[in-house]
Amino acid sequence: MAKEINLQTEKRNTFGKKNKSLRSTGIIPVNMYGLGDSISLQVDEDTLYKTLKEAGYTTPIKLSVDGKDETYTLVRNVDRHPVTDKLVHVDFLRVDMEKEIEVQVPVVLINQDSAPGTRGGAGVVTQGVYEVTILAKPLEIPSELEADCSILENLEMYVYAKDLNIPDGASLTSDEEAQIAWIQPPRVQEEVVEAVSEEGLEGEGETTEDGESSDSDSDGGEETSE
């Protein structure tokens, strides 16, 4: 079992535009919903940052309100400022630890360098899907799923969602045929075409149809004497 993560919160009495003044004091507004009424809460910004970094979207957080009413939750939504990237608001979803829940889990690639299909510069491993949805009890949700690229023997092969190592007690609910990774061939032909096109552009303007230089000044071709 993963290390238990706890988060202390307080009930919140500010709403709407008044939350701006709350944030200015280092307090972030949060909500908890699901399996009952929605509750408006607030939590210290630094504490919330550390908790989000540790738990992500897949690890249950035991959330308490005013020192009591401990409830297991998952992070469901994180709002950040578009310019400063600072926390603006966070939603927590109550979960029943004995019931399965759908959650999106990040996918990471492993063994890219050992993919046989990349030998000799045949191409590079490319990732197309970065997360999949699984169904599992909260404590059985993996923090990430690994896509093993060592099976990519040629340009026609893919790592599919069904190839991921889903842990016992969990099941994949995303499209099993979703293409997680493959080998992207080098763009040699396109680069050659681009090079030829650039050479053609550089050569333009050097001569006219009658063989004269198009860069010469027609008024300045003869010397004048006074």
Describe the structure in your own words.
This protein has 226 residues and is α+β, with helices and mostly antiparallel strands. It contains 3 helices and 13 strands. It has helices spanning 19-24, 45-55, 188-203; strands spanning 5-11, 27-33, 39-44, 61-65, 68-80, 87-94, 101-110, 124-127, 131-136, 145-148, 158-160, 171-172, 179-184. The strands form 3 sheets. A 6-stranded mixed barrel has the order 1-3-2-6-5-4. The protein has a 4-stranded mixed β-sheet with strand order 10-7-9-12, with no helix packed on it. Strands 8-13-11 form a 3-stranded antiparallel β-sheet, with no helix packed on it. Mean pLDDT is 85; it is low at 206-226.
What share of the residues lie within helices?
10-25%
Number of beta strands: 13
Low-confidence stretches: 206-226
Counting helices, strands and paired strands, the structural category is: alpha+beta
Please outline the major beta sheet: 6 strands, mixed, barrel
What would you say the CATH architecture of the largest domain is?
A: Beta Barrel
- Which sequence of SSEs, written as H and E, runs from N to C? EHEEHEEEEEEEEEEH
Radius of gyration: 29 Å
Determine the strand fraction and express it as a percent band.
Answer: 35-45%
Strand order of the largest sheet: 1-3-2-6-5-4
Whole-number count of domains: 2
Q: What's the level 1 CATH class of the largest domain?
A: Mainly Beta
**In one word, what is the shape?**
globular
The CATH superfamily label of the largest domain reads Ribosomal Protein L25, Chain P
Tally of alpha and pi helices: 3
User: How far is it from the N-terminal to the C-terminal residue, by CA?
Assistant: 99 Å
